[in-house]
Records
---
Amino acid sequence: MGWVCTYTPEELLHAAGFLPVRVIGGCGEIPLGEAEGYLYRTTCSAMRTLFQLGLNKGYDFLDGLVTCTTCDSVRRFADNWRHYALTPFTHILTLPHKITEPDHRFWREQVVELKDKLEQFSGVRITPERLKESISLFNETRGLLKALAQTRKWDYPPITGSELLEIVNAGVRMPKEQFNPLLRQLLKQLPASPPQLTGERKPRIMLGGSLLNNSDFVKFIEGRGCVVVADELCSTSRYFWDLVDLDRYPDPIEALSRRYLEHFPCARMLTTAERDERIMAMVKDYRVQGLLYEVIRYCVHYRYDFSRLKRKLQSLNIPALELEMEYGVSGSGQLMTRVDAFIEMVGGG
Amino acid sequence: MEHNLQKNVTDFGTLDKAIDSLRSIYEHRQKHPTTDDELLYYKAMLKYLSDARNARRDGKLLISHSAFVPTEILYAMDMVPWHNAMAPGAMANATKCHQELINSGSSYGLPQECCSAHLMAVGALLKGWLPPFDAFVSAYMGCDMAAIGSKIQSELCDAPCFNIEAPSSHTEEDLKYYVGQLEDMISFLEEQSHQKLDPGKLREAVRLGVQAAQVCQDIGEIRKAAPAPLRNRSAVQQYLLHLFMAGSGEVVDYFEAVRRGVVENVRNKKGPAPEEKHRILTLFLPPLHYMKMLDWLEKEQGASSVMETHACYWGEAPIEFNPDRPLESLARKSLRQPMLRQLHSGLEPLLDDIVKQARDYRADMALYYASITCRTSPATVRAIKEVLMEQVHIPMMVIDCDSSDPTYTPEDKLKDSIKEFLSTVAD
């Protein structure tokens, strides 16, 4: 069962007997000619890419697609996906922008509706026990990924930003039952404590933005003389940062819906104070020296968010650079020039 | 660039010029009448801009709001509404300052491909051409930019902003949620004004809002006649006036005048087009700065717009007013308003509506004005074109344009391409 937006409760798909697969595209840019006939040039290239892959039968292995009313582009992508029946099942959750108690109640109803629809489609009853098992499994995945990401606090992070992205890319595609043991093994192989190395330290960069799945792009950035130590991307940290809290909310549906609405907010949410607080905490904890911020062309949420964040970071003397790009790019001459100048500015030239 | 706008430093020159321009049109129409409703439209628009201009002088709170915020609540609370995307556009249309506003909006860092209506709104604010706003209310419904534009503007004005959410489906549970949003909006406004909402005033404003919608539905029914009994430009006027002033008596007077006009035309078996050659289903919004192009279609091409799905269609089910539950009545009505219904409720209901209208209104073609900076609407054109051809067997022309920015497509070019389409279909 495919899913697009990180507000989609992945555990429900699993509890209904599906393998949840994030519909995030392959790596790299693809020609979008046919998709542009269905969507429009102002639909962001991330959604045009995913739709094109659907038209190319790249997602024929899916039984369905679940996503949210994340933004205008995602909404119309999903509407067209459903209309043209690119998968037998499509469901769109209406996602609030605020987090008040009425919003929680509304969102919980959305989650319950998804549960009902998945049960009807799969013929599998999602019992509280089944759902709790899925929650435990996914909590383990997220906990392990977070532990891995936290090693980047070290002076010499044992993994690069591009490696972390590759690992998460695998984790959102393969069964968690197989992914978790591999991840545990990897964590064991890493040094137990920060290695005492000497030598030149590279500038510590944070990545910001929305959907970024091409690890070659991160590799390209790191190849310009910096190390990506933190990110707030929905394809990495925002995906795994928060767990479902069954201790606080014993009802698994309640716990799930709370976690998804309250998790590390994306720029489309109105909870900007919390988003800023989390980002500033990351900047501090990971000793970030500069923010590289990906804006997929035509995305109004992240463009606005960048201008806001940039002002906040300026007060901490942290420079920020917006990289407006098409989805899937791995690096180009223009980007190279801009990234080089930025790295030089933050101290790595 | 750091932007901090100070209150009370408005340069009213452009707004005054827009008001003067509307007054001239109104006076001209008094001397040279076209239709009663058009006269009332200009009168209401004149009042709308003047009320905003003089809100502070009159001791009223001026509330800037985005699309789909129910203005009935503002009228009930004796506040002055300002539609923060379309009203600057109306000001620009009256004074021809579009490019100046777009350039100014771009200086904030908004890209040119941002919705031009919002770009102009931010531009007008940065220029100091808008009156000081006391608060903002925005709605996250079918247009991300509406909410983001409100956020930017409220930050620039250092004024508080409240956001309402709306469900995209309409179950009873969804309705309760939306009613709760409206209650929160009222609480927010009460905090701003330090005054409680008078339930009687709310009841009256909602009654007027619902009445206007009911008359509009009636007009829709009457318009199924041939020849088409309504002027092409009237649909845009209906759309704007409802968006700006729902809950006021002016809107009801206006819609009733429209209804009288179409009833009379149907009775006389005549329409504004001298000879009706084409019956057009109009989709999305024609360029608001080229109203004369709609007249040209009607008068010179014999092309009547028989229905405008996004601007005028409220659906078939009756819209009702329950005096004991005014907020619920308002919620039900608001969720069905044109444009919101089409942008916020998914593709399938929209396609069903369009097919039904094409049949009911005996359209022989459709024109889709694809506003290039809109994120929501143009991503539906392919599906619409296909269902119209497959199910109703009528062609649809997609017109790339910009609803608010006249510099994107020259009027002559638009006319040429439409004329070519009409002649191809006629052949």
---
Amino acid sequence: MAKNIFSRIATLINRVVDILSQGSLERVKILREFNITFKQAWEEKSIDRFCSVTTSPGDPNFRHELSTFYLRSGFKITVGNDDGLTEKDYGEISKYVVESKPFVRQLMALGYDTLIIKGKHPYHQGKRLALKEISSLQDYMLK
Amino acid sequence: MNIETYILISAGTLFLLFVICFLLIFKKRRVRRILKNKILADGGSSYLDIAKNITMSMSKSKILYRNLIVKVHPDKFQNDKNKKANELASRITVAKRNYDKLCKLEIEVGAFLKK
């Protein structure tokens, strides 16, 4: 219960900081759209894992030109019912996200530098990916 | 040089440094904003479409991929058709985790099989 309240407060603070620092609702919008879609798909039973998306601390080693402060640079997908999920499954989920290069670039433009796929339980390692290794901003820098 | 002049020069220098720093930070932020807007505009699809595609890919792309790859297996075709089937099979394999792309390829496969 206490953990749930703490998580809600952290999400609220993150949203306020997003709005103030970016001057736009882009990051809030992307998280909301993903959460609504995942929830709908779960309710319609089209996916067997309930996923939710949040902003979380990223990896300072994965920084790129547009990275935001590392405490808010992680795009985290949490798998709610992670029973029986192996490390390989986390890798498999991440592949669906990184499949679209333009989307990865959009995430990078919004200041994210780390893609995190994690389960609810802390003993699951999950998967951390550097977005700059999937797609590059170099072409845009040269233009 | 008396003390007032000294303070005045120091304050002026500090102010100048502050203005230079502010301009540099402002310029850097502006460049970042332009770059960000360019990338977001190039992204094309809305976040909702992307989220839907990822969800559909997680749930349905595996089955659709299997169906399509069986239909265009190059061993089933000969000569010219074999070449086209090969090309389609490789494109299907590349898009195996992207439901939207697989749906577009399904139409192509349908047209190819009708020929």
